[in-house]
């Protein structure tokens, strides 16, 4: 439907006069709805063909202009005509906000200002009401205000309204009214309040970014309101428009705010973000602004990103997105620097700080290349980097050494000088020494490294790092891009060393001051994920990179080898702690054989903690910390040649005597009878605190005549809740327990399973906490415990409960995790270890334990780990005879049965882990 067709509709109103508002709506709305529908379809088709987001947004805006024009003409020309209008019967229809900018996304609001000469009259009220009715009939989201010019000036004390007026655009009606508003707005507000407006907009931006996500490298970014998104570009232009009194972005070059290249960057960022936003709205059919995992792949395909260079299409798309977000950050810094220059006078203080850094050139002392400018480090002139490219590293080294910020002008010049960073500078001994100083600084290495990264210096100086800048990993586990994760991990390590995390990580706090290879640790932290996105295993490829760059940074051969070892094994401690039975001597011995020395054990613990904490909010838990501490202490014993050499029977005896001393109120006969009920494994696997609690729990249950009972407690520091279950043992016991947990919303992270000699199961199920307050968590634990007891007593059918928690209908999953089952008899002396990995979903653990039960396998312990959408569940099992599963045919049958679990409901989207 064309504009001519709309004009024909208006002509028809002349031929058959409009009777009332209902008649107007009946005649206009169907035609306008068809015009908008066809216009949206044409805009989407053009977007797919040309991939121009701004062109799409402007086309949608033009269509909306025609719709508003037709409604206005229909109302004013054919319904409420004013042949001899009085001074009060004047009206201007003005577009404001995003609509005022001349751009609309498919799901955007339509913001309108109905501008009056002074107070509202019956005529203007009728016109506004009629226009709104038609707009609402079209199902448009309309933001509207009816104000006089005087009202606008008064209401503009509110910065949100002032911003809306700043972007106003005249549409139809009495243009002199609008001109009067613009003249007064510029004269009475803009000319006198620039500093206040800038301050308000920057504070507003900070609040918005904090709400949407403080990092621009969040892997599910908000395209509109997130850091580095469209709203940041809007804010830059609002500020520039207000301060520099320009009307169009292109005028910012003439105003001296941007160079031509910087303005071109502004335009590229704006177009790309609009492209993504328009695709998001078209795909979802709503005003969706968050680029979630399930949408990223679809948007990448629509834009045309294909797999290349070891990255999938969606990863390449998100890398492009994060580079744009970084460019938006660069533009923000430029604007802030220029505004600061307008408001303050430079106060250079040469040699006050940097006088002692004078350097020889050609046998003579040269003038320093740096100065303090408004308490920030700046270059003396624009030739500083050209004169000596090492200054590109020295700038950041001085910032770290003296705890001073860098003037944005210097950062801007560094970015424009990146071509000076080549093989010669990368091999320069002084530059590398300064970089190593920054990386291993006790001040704020994360802050300075991030400044280097934002300027582009870090990726040029360390090309291996440059490859992972803005690279995301398409999974739910990592919250940040790879480069952001590495910088955050360095920051966490620095916090541990500085003692800022002592209460959270007491063991790390205790050992960090005892390590000998401090520089190697920080370099390993910086490099541990440096090889992400390559076809080969990133740990091994990263170790090769470490051996290459270590000598270049100035590390000794021994330090370089330590870095390479840490990078190659940076996942070892985490994987062992979370997915292996730490009470099994074979586990500890195998881990100790790889670690070999106490120094490596300390370094690996520190690196592992920082790595996990830097993944994202909520990933680190106290329970993971407890597992790591247990692994550390058990390995420390082995490496020290201590208690690990004590005979197994002697360790059992010592554990029993330790419990006997704690149960001083028990008789000898009572204790001996209780001790005889437990196999040696119980005494070796449980700590004394748990042994005491379980002994009293079992004793009280027997006195009360309860054969099925539970108890529970929560641990604030460890971030878990423990449920202990006492019940007659049978093969499907763990399946019933996990099913009850799934039905009650319990997220299992570990399970310790024991069977007494008289056929009772004494199992400890560890759940992640759901609530911060202990009272709330204990109420939830009570619900989970009650569900377990009812299921074990046969009062409910567990399969029905679990099925009730599954999604009502299958949804397309954004992730593909190929299921894998590994069966290993070398990891334990007494059990077969089955490791199962695949796409997580509600009830998965119940389905797996049910399958193991049907296979007649006894589960000795279970270790549950979830990495975002990927579940990794490890079971230590034996056959019903208590022996390992060694027959190849039996192993093949187990593997087939477990893989079959993942074939059901394959289209289901993953949720948070629940049993």
TrEMBL record:
InterPro entries given in the database record: ACT-like_dom_sf (IPR045865), ACT_dom (IPR002912), HD_domain (IPR006674), NT_sf (IPR043519), PII_UdlTrfase/GS_AdlTrfase (IPR013546), Polymerase_NTP_transf_dom (IPR002934), UTase/UR (IPR010043)
Domain of life: Bacteria
Cofactor(s) of this protein: Mg(2+)
Activity regulation description: Uridylyltransferase (UTase) activity is inhibited by glutamine, while glutamine activates uridylyl-removing (UR) activity.
Catalytic activity: [protein-PII]-L-tyrosine + UTP = [protein-PII]-uridylyl-L-tyrosine + diphosphate; [protein-PII]-uridylyl-L-tyrosine + H2O = [protein-PII]-L-tyrosine + UMP + H(+)
Region feature Uridylyltransferase, mapped onto this chain: 1-364
Listed EC numbers: 2.7.7.59, 3.1.4.-
ACT domain ranges (all copies): 722-804, 833-910
BP GO annotations: regulation of nitrogen utilization
Matching SUPFAM superfamilies: ACT-like, Nucleotidyltransferase, Nucleotidyltransferase substrate binding subunit/domain, Poly A polymerase C-terminal region-like
Keywords attached to this entry: Hydrolase, Magnesium, Multifunctional enzyme, Nucleotidyltransferase, Transferase
GO MF terms held by the record: [protein-PII] uridylyltransferase activity; phosphoric diester hydrolase activity
Residue ranges annotated for the HD domain, each copy included: 482-604
HAMAP family, per the entry: PII_uridylyl_transf (MF_00277)
Family listed: Belongs to the GlnD family.
Domains: entry comment: Has four distinct domains: an N-terminal nucleotidyltransferase (NT) domain responsible for UTase activity, a central HD domain that encodes UR activity, and two C-terminal ACT domains that seem to have a role in glutamine sensing.
Function: Modifies, by uridylylation and deuridylylation, the PII regulatory proteins (GlnB and homologs), in response to the nitrogen status of the cell that GlnD senses through the glutamine level. Under low glutamine levels, catalyzes the conversion of the PII proteins and UTP to PII-UMP and PPi, while under higher glutamine levels, GlnD hydrolyzes PII-UMP to PII and UMP (deuridylylation). Thus, controls uridylylation state and activity of the PII proteins, and plays an important role in the regulation of nitrogen metabolism.
Matches recorded under PANTHER family: BIFUNCTIONAL URIDYLYLTRANSFERASE/URIDYLYL-REMOVING ENZYME (PTHR47320), BIFUNCTIONAL URIDYLYLTRANSFERASE_URIDYLYL-REMOVING ENZYME (PTHR47320:SF1)
Name of the protein described by the UniProt record: Bifunctional uridylyltransferase/uridylyl-removing enzyme
Species the sequence originates in: Microvirga brassicacearum
């Amino acid at each position: 439907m064309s504009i001519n067709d709309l004009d024909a509709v208006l002509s028809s109103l002349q031929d058959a006069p409009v009777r009332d508002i209902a008649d107007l709506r009946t005649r206009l709305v169907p035609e306008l709805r068809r015009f908008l529908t066809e216009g949206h379809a044409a805009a989407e088709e053009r977007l797919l063909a040309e991939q121009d987001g701004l062109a799409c947004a402007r086309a949608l805006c033009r269509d909306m202009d025609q719709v508003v024009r037709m409604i206005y003409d229909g109302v004013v020309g054919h319904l409420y005509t004013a042949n001899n209008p009085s001074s009060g019967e004047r009206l201007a229809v003005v577009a404001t906000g995003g609509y005022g900018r001349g751009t609309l996304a498919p799901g955007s609001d339509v913001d309108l200002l109905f501008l009056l000469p002074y107070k509202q009259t019956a005529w203007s009220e009728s016109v506004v009401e009629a226009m709104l009715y038609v707009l609402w009939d079209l199902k448009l989201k309309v933001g509207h205000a009816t104000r006089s010019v005087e009202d606008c000036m008064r209401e503009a004390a509110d910065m949100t309204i002032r911003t809306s007026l700043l972007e106003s655009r005249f549409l139809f009606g009495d243009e002199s009214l609008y001109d009067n508003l613009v003249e007064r707005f510029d004269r009475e507000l803009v000319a006198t309040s620039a500093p206040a407006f800038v301050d308000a907009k920057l504070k507003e931006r900070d609040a918005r970014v904090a709400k949407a996500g403080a990092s621009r490298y969040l892997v599910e970014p908000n395209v509109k309101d997130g850091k580095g998104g469209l709203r940041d570009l809007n804010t830059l232009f609002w500020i520039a428009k207000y301060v520099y009194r320009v009307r169009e972005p292109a005028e910012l070059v003439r105003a001296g705010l941007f160079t031509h290249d910087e303005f071109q960057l502004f335009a590229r960022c704006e177009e790309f973000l609009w492209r993504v936003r328009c695709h998001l709205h078209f795909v979802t059919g709503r005003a969706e602004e968050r680029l979630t995992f399930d949408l990223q792949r679809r948007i990448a395909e629509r834009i045309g990103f294909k797999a290349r260079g070891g990255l999938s299409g969606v990863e390449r798309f998100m890398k492009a997105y994060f580079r744009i977000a970084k460019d938006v950050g660069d533009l923000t810094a430029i604007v802030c620097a220029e505004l600061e220059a307008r408001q303050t006078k430079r106060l250079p203080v040469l040699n006050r700080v940097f006088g002692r850094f004078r350097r020889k050139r050609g046998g003579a002392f040269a003038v320093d290349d740096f100065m303090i400018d408004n308490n920030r480090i700046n270059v003396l002139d624009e030739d500083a980097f050209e004169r000596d490219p090492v200054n590109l590293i020295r700038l950041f080294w001085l910032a770290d050494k003296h705890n001073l910020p860098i003037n944005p002008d210097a950062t801007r010049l560094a970015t424009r000088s990146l071509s000076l960073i080549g093989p010669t500078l990368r091999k320069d001994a002084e530059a590398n020494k300064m970089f190593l100083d920054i990386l291993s600084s006790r001040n704020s290495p994360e802050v300075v490294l991030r400044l280097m990264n934002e300027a582009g210096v870090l990726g040029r100086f360390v090309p291996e790092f440059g490859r992972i800048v803005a690279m995301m990993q398409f999974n739910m586990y990592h919250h940040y891009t790879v480069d952001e994760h590495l910088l955050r991990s360095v920051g966490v390590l620095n916090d541990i060393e500085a003692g800022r995390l002592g209460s959270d990580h007491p063991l790390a706090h205790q050992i960090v001051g005892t390590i000998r290879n401090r520089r190697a640790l920080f370099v390993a932290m910086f490099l541990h994920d440096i090889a992400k996105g390559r076809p080969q295993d990133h740990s091994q490829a990263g170790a090769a990179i470490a051996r290459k760059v270590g000598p270049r940074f100035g590390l000794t051969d021994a330090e370089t080898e330590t870095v390479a070892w840490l990078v190659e094994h940076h996942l070892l401690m985490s994987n062992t702690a979370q997915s292996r039975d730490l009470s099994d001597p074979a586990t500890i011995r195998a881990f100790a054989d790889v670690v070999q020395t106490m120094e490596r054990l300390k370094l690996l613990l520190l690196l592992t903690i920082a790595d996990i904490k830097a993944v994202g909010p909520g990933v680190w838990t106290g329970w993971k910390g407890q597992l790591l501490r247990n692994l550390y202490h058990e390995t420390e014993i082995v490496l020290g040649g201590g208690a690990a050499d004590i005979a197994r029977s002697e360790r059992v005896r010592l554990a029993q005597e330790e419990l006997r001393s704690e149960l001083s109120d028990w008789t000898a006969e009572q204790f001996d009878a209780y001790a005889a009920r437990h196999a040696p494994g119980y005494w070796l696997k449980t700590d004394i605190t748990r042994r005491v609690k379980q002994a009293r729990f079992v004793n009280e249950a027997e006195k009360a005549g309860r054969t099925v009972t539970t108890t529970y407690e929560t641990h604030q520091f460890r971030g878990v809740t423990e449920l202990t279950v006492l019940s007659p043992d049978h093969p499907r016991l763990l399946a019933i327990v996990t099913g009850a947990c799934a039905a009650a919303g319990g997220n299992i992270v570990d399970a310790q399973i024991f069977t007494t000699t008289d056929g009772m199961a004494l199992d400890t199920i560890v759940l992640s906490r759901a609530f911060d307050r202990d009272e709330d968590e204990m109420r939830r634990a009570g619900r989970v415990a009650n569900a377990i007891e009812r299921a074990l007593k046969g009062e409910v059918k567990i399969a029905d409960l679990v099925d009730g928690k599954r999604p009502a209908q299958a949804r397309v999953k954004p992730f593909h995790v190929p299921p894998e089952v590994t069966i290993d008899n070398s990891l334990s002396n007494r059990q077969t270890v089955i490791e199962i990995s695949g796409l997580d979903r509600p009830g998965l653990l119940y389905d797996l334990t049910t399958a193991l039960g049907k296979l007649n396998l006894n589960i000795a312990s279970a270790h549950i780990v979830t990495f975002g959408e990927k579940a990794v569940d490890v079971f230590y099992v034996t056959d019903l005879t208590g022996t390992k599963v060694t027959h190849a045919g039996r192993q093949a049958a187990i593997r087939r049965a477990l893989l079959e679990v993942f074939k059901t409901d394959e289209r289901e989207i993953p949720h948070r882990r629940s049993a």
